[in-house]
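To whoever picks this up:

The nightly regression suite flagged N-methylhydantoinase A as changed. Nothing in the input moved, so I suspect the structure step. Input below, exactly as stored in the fixture:
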Amino acid sequence: MSRYHLGVDIGGTFTDVVLLDNETGRYTTAKSPSTPNNLSNGVINGIKKLVTDLSEVDFFVHGTTAGINALLERKGAKMALVVTKGFKDLYEIGRANRPEIYNIQYRQPEKLISRRHIIEVEERMSADGSVDNPLRKNDLEQLVESLENQDFDSVSICLIHAYKNPDHEKMIKEYLQERLPTMSISLSHEMVREWREYERISTTVINAYVAPIIEDYLEKLEKEAELNGLRSNLHIMQSNGGVMTAEVAKEIPVQTLMSGPVGGTIGSIEVGQNSDHQNLICVDMGGTSFDVSLAVDGEPDVTAEAELEKFPIMTPMVDIHTIGAGGGSTAWVEGGGLRVGPESAGSDPGPACYGKGGNRATVTDANLILGRIDSESFLGGDMSLDVDAAYKVIEDIANKLGLSIVETAEGVCDIANAKMADAIRTLTVSKGIDPRDFALVAFGGAGPLHAMFIAEHLGINKVKIPAIAGTFSAWGMLQTDIRHDDVRTYVSVLDESDVTEMNGLYEEMKISTKEILSQQKIQEEDMLFQCLADLRYAGQEYTVTVPLYTTIVEEKSLEELKESFHDKHFNIYGHNNRDGIVEIVNLRLIATGYIDKAKQGKNLGAAEKEAFPIQTKPVIWENKRKNTTVYSIDDLFPSHKITGPTIIETPSSTIVVPENFVVEVDNFGNLELTRGE
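Regenerated output under the current build:
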């Protein structure tokens, strides 16, 4: 009998597991060290801490870092790129823009594929989708020969104007599947059906680069899960905030690149909705990185185009800014000054206090020296920390700087806090957004340790800490639906647009996405389609995506679309031009398949007695040692109110509350902290 929902998120240091018991409505969590050499081992080890018979699991969703790790570490597949004859240098040339115009040392990133592995084929589609030069069998034979001779694992096929007419790409794939059945094949029109040839090629190349790694990883995980009794589909978190089955993920692995951090964003929105906070800054601090995302009006901030490792990628994803600042970020001295990150000690050997042979000071070691985390109750008592080892590595840094050990430990944390605050400013202040208008939701194993200090840096008055903050991204994945995005290029002056043609393109996308949702066992009555359009003022290069509030486009819909565009342009850029000519560039469709989702735990009743601390211990606050109360989150209920300084311990994280914060508990056990003047 199926009774569980299971969410798993792989981090750089730990793999987080959340299990919902549908019968009791209770959540249990676990952490297991990540296993970089075989990520599926860490996943199965973590799951076995909570459930041994996976036949009782009816929904399993997983956020994987296999693809993004392969891209960051440049350990992707050996691949070829197939292009239309005459366009061999398009990927190499890219765009002529210089992203860091004042950086005299700026260099373009080394391409994922060398020029000698780019193969031209004789064919040509015109911009209107008509066949200008047909594809011939002789060219296909030569292509097969080239791919066989160089022993490629993967191939990306990106033909000119394939977004308008993909027939030639489909023909090549069909032929290669027949002759080279083991090769992974990525088609540009399956990745993105819109213009901008370089960006379309870049997206497809990234997909081909990580595809064999993702396919191999998911097959291993599926096999291990099946051996442990799993009978339901394995679902994978997508970068756009939805989920998809593992079978679909193998076809479009580029959609999984940010699948881990996105779970926390979706979970934050669920927490915010239960406390009337619609505008959120979501921060996830683990052992290796610090991820920042926004939710505006209760929706994730999704962008249609992003950059990863300076490569453009045209696929919808939650806009996440990441820096190397986590609990495992190492501290070091350069030019007489203290530096923190981006290098991390990871999970092996990890911080010195883990007792695994680490010999470099980290943020976690600094927090241990300051008394903010406890050596005996770390991770709910599952792991003991070596205070002497932490003391030694912090002392080494202190001696080089001529500071005390306490001053050095506080300096390490202060620098990390400042870097994380700057990361938030990148997504807010640099875009004209005032972070003081948002609530901060902090999660991850180390997020609640630093959240209040970050809020003070930015002047944020409200901070939310989820009850299961240490494994929150895995919990957030259980709040999602199946989602698929599609796009068609349609260029026209908005007032002159042909609504019949627009409706035809939207219908084409509905048919396509409905088929994909059906493959994932979504019933038609559980499907929802949202139409959007990319608009711009005449003369502009880039666009603003605006939703249509109907699934059938009429003449009045165009006027409503224009008004929405003017308003949104003003909100984003601070100006608009209501007399200007508005152009439509792309039509977009979001297809959602609703599934039974896990909700937050049962409502907590008011406390029957006063909250008492589990201990009092010395903690360093602004270079002063103070006896500080320590509470267990299990003893806190909605009527309780606690004033800092204090520390609250959970099984998967520690919450540090400075002096000017007041802590309250909501009906679901989440903490809301209010900053005083």
